Amino acid sequence: MKKYVAFFLPSLLTSLLIQAQTDKWQQRVKYVMEINMDVNTNRFTGKQKLEYTNNSPDTLKKVFYHLHWNAFQPNSMMDVRSQELGKTKINGSPDWDRRVKDRISQLKEDEIGYQKIISFNANGTPQKFIVHETILEVILNRPILPKSKAVFDMEFETQVPVQIRRSGRDAANGVRYSMSQWYPKLCEYDAEGWHPTPYIAREFYGVWGDFDVKISIDKNYILGGTGYLQNTNEIGYGYELAGANVKRPNTRKLTWHFLAPNVHDFVWAADPDYKHLKTQISSGPTIHILYRGVQKSAVNDSAWKQILDFCIKVWPFLEKQYGQYPYKQYSFIEGGDGGMEYPMATLINSGDLGSASHELMHSWFQGILANNESIYPWLDEGFSNWSQSYVLDNYIQQLPKEHETRKFYEKKFEGLPYPIKGNYDLYFSLAKSGKEEPLTTHADHFESYFASGAGAYYKGAVFIEQLSYIVGKETRDKILLEYYRRWRFKHPTAEDFISVAEKQSNMKLDWYKEYWINTTKTIDYGIDSLWEEGGKSKIRLKRIGKMPMPVDLLIEYKDGSKQIAYIPMYLMFGAKPVEDPNVARTVYESWKWTHPTYTIEVPRKLSEMRTMEIDASQRMADIERRNNKLDIPW
Ligand SMILES: [Zn+2]
């Protein structure tokens, strides 16, 4: 059986990919980099050859690169922005990232980060360039024509900053080098034009392509990162093939050679004290764990080790639910601060399964789909936050009842399988805080750090869970798989997601994006009044909130029977399929959003009813649930 699946699936995916390629062009990069690291000065020199393919219909007269580490200098945009945010207090604390605070302003000369461009050639000719702090602008002598290639050669010098956020050296937990956003990285050019987004602290957007990276560093350092190590038997440290004889050259440094096909970024980390664990997922990738374990506690060791067991157990669920993982490895690497996702790897600072599952889910949403995270952070963070709950739940369900981890999470979630409730609660506090801003706001441009984070993570997670209330759970799951198949390696937008959702559900859903993402309008439905007329019951429902939604009204009778009165919302032009075949459902005419009330007629007496509730599943983010439920008073 497996044989047929393996044979059939790739050809199906390939044909879908070809179909997808015809209607959305993507730029393409091929990086070849050589890095020479000096671990005494924490500086490295680099050479970068970049082959750039302009698949756009446009002639490009300039190109832009990110120079992220120039942000780690006093008075940089990232520094000033963080300090300005810190002047406001939210819930009694300064509204800044506690990892950043005003720490950049205090960096000394040998602690700052910098990326200095020594030379830049296009097709062998020197070019004029301007450094705008974290953005490099190159004015090309000769423009790049549509459907043509250019080759850029760059030499650069870099100082690794002291760890402030995501990347850096000598973090508080002792990790020597967390090397993310470490190279001059070409900005993405898409149908909206260039995206020269300065690095202020928020997340990333990159060009799809292939990376060939050679890193020379003192031979006692152990590395992990994106890509496949090529010279495993020369490096060793657990990377060597089984039974291989490791032969290291007799030099002070080792050169680690990685290849990473079809990714949009490349991360690495290095430390002399990393321990290396690995396992092979059957018909899946190799999982690497690199951690310092300097705390030398058994708890810490077993937490990191458990990630291997976690991956083995959840991998079949992951691929069934979210699509095939297309790479040969994935690495969990202990980095200098909280979890951050990169293609084929994550930097996390503990073996906590919550972070591990969250970062792993980014492999699908950030690694493979790769939305522009400045514009659609919620598509990535929200979806990762949401799916992490189900992945962790899937793992816990596979553990014996008495397993410590199972007991720990069952207590934490207060009743599985609904670990996602926390996202709703945090969204409700955002909605009631008065600080909420529309999710269409550029990630850098929110008024508060609180609103950008809570919006992307929690309101984003509610978006996808709540979608199952509108279209049904099975359809929602089909939408996610089709979203992956249709848009992987394509940088999908919110509109692309909605378009897939509409086709799979056979409903109009543009209104859902418009209200939930483009505005801060909230949902509140209530039971308004009841009466009897000619032996039948009338139930009047009321829309109190500004955002319209379909309504599931569950009626429970005294004889123990149940009934769902389902009222689609007018703008859907459709109805969700029956979700629970054990409960009778009556579909009513759709509710026009212009009408604040809606009255249904039920062919049984009020005296036969015990209770009724709007959305008993609690997937609709109704900000006032007290008016959703009514116990019949007679
Ligand atoms: Zn995340």
Terminal residue distance: 59 Å
Summed up, the helix count is 12
Q: Provide the β-strand percentage band.
A: 25-35%
What's the pLDDT, averaged over the residues? 94
Based on the structure, what is the oligomeric state of the protein chains? single chain
Strand order, largest beta sheet: 7-6-10-2-1-16-19-18
Name every ligand kind in the structure.
zinc ion
Indicate the low-confidence ranges by residue numbers.
Answer: 1-22
The largest β sheet comes out as: 8 strands, mixed
User: What gross morphology would you assign?
Assistant: globular
* Radius of gyration, CA atoms, in whole angstroms: 27 Å
Helix content: 25-40%
> How many strands?
33
Structural class: alpha+beta
Quick structural gist:
With 634 residues, the protein is of the alpha+beta class. 28% of the residues lie in helices and 30% in strands. It contains twelve helices and 33 strands.
Describe what you observe in this structure.
The longest helix has 25 residues, at 298-322. The protein has an 8-stranded mixed sheet. α5 crosses α6 and α8 (421-433) crosses α9. The protein is built from 12 helices and 33 strands. The chain is globular and about 95 Å long. It has 634 residues and is α+β, with helices and mostly antiparallel strands. Residues 1-22 have low confidence and may be disordered. The site of zinc ion has 5 residues, from α5 and α6.
